[in-house]
Automatic annotation (TrEMBL):
It comes from Kibdelosporangium aridum. It is found in: Cytoplasm. Belongs to the ABC transporter superfamily. UvrA family. Its main location: cytoplasm. Keywords: ATP-binding, Cytoplasm, DNA damage, DNA excision, DNA repair, DNA-binding, Excision nuclease, Nucleotide-binding, Repeat. The keyword Transferase does not apply. This is UvrABC system protein A. SUPFAM superfamilies: P-loop containing nucleoside triphosphate hydrolases. InterPro entries: AAA+_ATPase (IPR003593), ABC_transporter-like_ATP-bd (IPR003439), ABC_transporter-like_CS (IPR017871), P-loop_NTPase (IPR027417). Coiled coil: none annotated. It holds the Pfam family ABC_tran. It comes from the Bacteria.
Length: 726
């Protein structure tokens, strides 16, 4: 057992929990109930912290930093691996092949049996000078001038037709071109083409393109931020003209196995490659082929057979990244590890979920402990044990409300059990569209020249198995019609940004305190005489340490309360200005009697975020919470009818919170907007006014419209089956 005593992190109410080891344990509960606080911020954090402590300081500084949880005692931990939906790093050299080690085996295969025979396996590594393409240094792409962005053809030279910094009228380089060689008065559009070419590519004086590339691209100087910005604006990445994206040098990229180059294999769908490599019959490489096949099969099993090994990891979705990480750990021979998953079914069609649960069971059967935070009943069904935290969100949660099997949960009376018992019916009276917008001839990624009408003024749900082309179709909608995407990226990266700053209620709060206490409002501002003199109203003190990360400590003078005792003595409904930070949004609406405040907060409450605290940094929000904050902002600020696109808005939502979400989406439609949602959740699909189902398979086996119409009439596609089976 992992024995936890007195867990108090975030909203946890001093709880004791025994989590069995060697099992799949699924943690359930409403959003904000405290699941993550227990699983990630307590169990994983303590395991990570203790593991880090075993290393010398030099190593420790390079490891992820864990915040020690507020807990009495934890026993029975082991080294922890957190498999979350954070995307796999932004390194251009990282591909699906390198991250899963499949590429290592493929290289080995080529070094042993390719024709002509090349030699060492590092000759097939694009991260090794022996193998990399010299033109692009193994990146497969080169940075090239975006010449079409250099000139404003409607302007003359003296009006600033050359848009590059320093080339405009009065700029350092301007006189080179304006000293009589070129016409400075006529808009460039009216020049003969030969003159424009001379300006861009001439030799006397040196053309603008060559000069730009010399100053910005072929320089060994350290680039200033301004230069980097200029480069980003006036260049684009292009496929390497030498290796055409294969990343390897000539010898390595022309060698073949079974008649295919390694580049061709990197572009094949993984499921196809898995079939192909079984044709290698050379006994000397049998172990290599077996290891390669093992990795490829694991990816097919987990529903990623539609990817290719050459795919850059930065282009993967959150759910895809998470599944790749899982495959990587399946190959590990470490046992008795603690694996912690954050909603592994995100991005998975019900059809693909069983592949994921199989992986979880495999990890367990290898002798590991698998903890999963999940809302999907299909995952609960495979759990050896279920732990529900709740009963509600925030302050009204944080307790252990149930522990037992799925069958026992179904008979219990917890919020999760109740939600499981209810199934939302298919919407019987879909709303009538106002009109349509057309996505025409879409060929992005795997789309097979799709033309489709999206009804306006209603909610359309895009469905289909993972990799079928839903996101690609949504991107095409955005590109063709400028829709607004409401995604799950962080609302803010500034740790000082909170619901207070975000909704702009800081001033109304100060005015309220001033009005009800008859003192100046400025007293309650962090940059006034009312602020704590030692921390200047920050509540914390920074200490800069040479050679190390700076330290942050709570200010001793005010104890983090930021104001002088005199200011804190002024109250509204018994609350000081510092207490306001600890109020939840729901409480604040009731206790701060001011229209400006309640109006601004109402929108956050209406999207189900009433449990957030006013002073909670927005950087602590989950992806799903961030997305709902953005929906709230749109509800508050929109003007004319707008087209919104949402990618899996149920991520992180408990079955019951889905009611709130659906009400919010309804609200958007009620305001005259058009809502397009990519979604796997069957309750959301049933509530669609219009359904567009893509497929039939992933990757090149998908990209077609299988069905468009009302949910009730969907034929026997993967989505249709999922709707009838559950
Ligand atoms: P769940 O995982 O069940 O959705 P969480 O454990 O993330 O819930 O959150 C439980 C409560 O703790 C919520 O009210 C949430 O707003 C709050 N909370 C989470 N992280 C932090 C944090 N870093 N600081 C303050 N409050 C937090
Ligand atoms: P879905 O949203 O239905 O899961 P996607 O639209 O993300 O599917 O993907 C459809 C196909 O396009 C898949 O084969 C996927 O691997 C491919 N794809 C998606 N994004 C990219 C990209 N940036 N580069 C290359 N291929 C991509
Ligand atoms: Zn190249
Ligand atoms: Zn202070």
């Amino acid at each position: 057992m992992i024995r936890i005593r007195g867990a108090r992190t975030n909203n946890l109410k001093d709880i004791d929990v025994d989590v069995p080891r060697g099992q799949v344990v699924v943690f359930v509960g409403l959003s904000g109930s405290g699941k993550s606080s227990l699983v990630f911020d307590t169990i994983a954090a303590e395991a990570g912290f203790q593991l880090t402590e075993t290393f010398p300081p030099f190593t420790r500084n390079r490891l992820p930093k864990w915040t020690r949880p507020e807990v009495g005692q934890i026993e029975g931990l082991s080294p922890v691996v957190v498999i979350d939906q954070r995307r796999i790093g932004g390194n251009a050299r990282s591909t699906v092949g390198t991250i899963t080690d499949a590429w290592t085996y493929l290289r080995l295969l080529f070094s042993r049996v390719s024709t002509p025979h090349v030699g060492e396996s590092n000759h097939f590594s694009f991260n090794d000078p022996a193998g990399m393409c010299p033109t692009c240094s193994g990146l497969g792409e080169v940075v090239a001038s975006a010449v079409d962005r250099f000139l404003d053809l409607d302007k003359s030279l003296q009006d600033g037709a050359i848009l590059l910094p320093g080339f405009g009228n009065g700029g350092y380089w301007y006189s080179l071109y304006a000293d009589g060689t070129f016409d400075v008065d006529t808009p460039l559009r009216d020049w003969p083409k030969a003159r424009r070419d001379a300006l861009l590519y001439g030799t006397e004086p040196e053309g603008v393109v060559e000069r730009f590339e010399r100053i910005y691209l072929r320089t060994s100087d350290n680039l200033s931020d301004r230069k980097k910005e200029t480069i980003a604006r006036f260049t684009r990445s292009e496929v390497c003209p030498d290796c055409h994206g294969d990343r390897l040098n000539e010898a390595s990229r022309t060698a073949t196995v079974l008649g295919h180059t390694i580049g061709e294999m990197a572009r094949m769908e993984i499921s196809e490659l898995a079939d192909l490599v079984t044709d290698v019959t050379d006994a000397s490489v049998a172990p290599v082929v077996a290891a390669l096949k093992d990795r490829l099969d694991a990816m097919v099993t987990i529903g990623l057979g539609y990817l290719h090994l050459g795919r850059g990891t930065t282009t993967l979705s959150g759910g895809e990244s998470q599944r790749i990480k899982t495959v990587k750990h399946l190959g590990s021979s470490l046992i008795e590890m603690l694996y912690v998953f954050d909603e592994p079914t995100v991005g998975l069609h019900p059809h693909d979920v069983s592949a994921m649960t199989t992986l979880l069971e495999q990890l367990r059967d290898k002798g590991n402990c698998v903890l999963v935070v999940e809302h999907d009943p299909a995952v609960m069904a495979v759990a050896d044990q279920i732990i529900e935290i709740g009963p509600r969100a925030g302050d009204q949660g944080g307790e252990l409300v149930f522990q037992g099997t799925f069958a026992e949960l179904r008979r219990a009376k917890t919020p999760t059990a109740t939600a499981l018992a209810q199934q939302r019916p298919i919407k019987d009276q879909p709303r009538k569209p106002r009109g349509t917008v057309t996505i025409a001839d879409a060929t992005r990624n795997n789309l097979k020249n799709v033309t489709v009408d999206i009804p306006t003024g209603v909610m359309t749900v895009l469905t289909g198995v993972a990799g079928s082309g839903k996101s690609s179709l949504a991107s095409e909608l955005v590109a063709q019609h400028d829709a607004i995407v409401i995604d799950q990226k962080p609302v803010s990266t500034n740790r000082r940004s909170t619901p207070i700053t975000y909704t702009g209620i800081a001033t109304p709060i100060r005015k309220l305190f001033s009005r009800l206490n008859n003192v100046p409002a400025s007293l309650f501002s962090a940059n006034s005489s009312g602020a704590c003199p030692d921390c200047d109203g920050l509540g914390i003190i920074y200490t800069d340490l040479a050679f190390m990360d700076g330290q942050e400590t709570v200010c001793q003078t005010c104890g983090g309360r930021r104001f002088t005792p005199e200011v804190l003595s002024h109250k509204v409904d018994g609350l000081s200005i510092a207490d306001v930070d600890d109020l939840t949004i729901t409480d604040a609406i009731q206790r701060l009697p001011d229209r400006a405040i309640t109006k601004a907060l109402h929108h956050l409450e209406s999207v189900g975020l009433g449990y957030l605290r006013l002073g909670q940094p927005l950087t602590t929000l989950s992806g799903g919470e961030a997305q709902r904050v953005k929906i709230a902002k749109e509800l508050r600020e929109t003007t004319g009818p707008t087209l919104y696109v949402l990618d899996e808005p149920t991520t992180g939502l408990h079955l019951r919170d889905i009611d709130t979400l659906l009400a919010v989406l309804d609200d958007l439609v009620q305001h005259g907007h058009t809502v397009v949602v990519i979604e796997h959740n069957l309750d959301v699909i049933r509530q669609a006014d219009w359904l567009i189902d893509l497929g039939p398979g992933p990757g090149k086996h998908g990209g077609k419209i299988l069905y468009q119409g009302h949910v009730a009439e969907i034929p026997d596609t993967a989505t249709g089956q999922a709707l009838t089976n559950r």
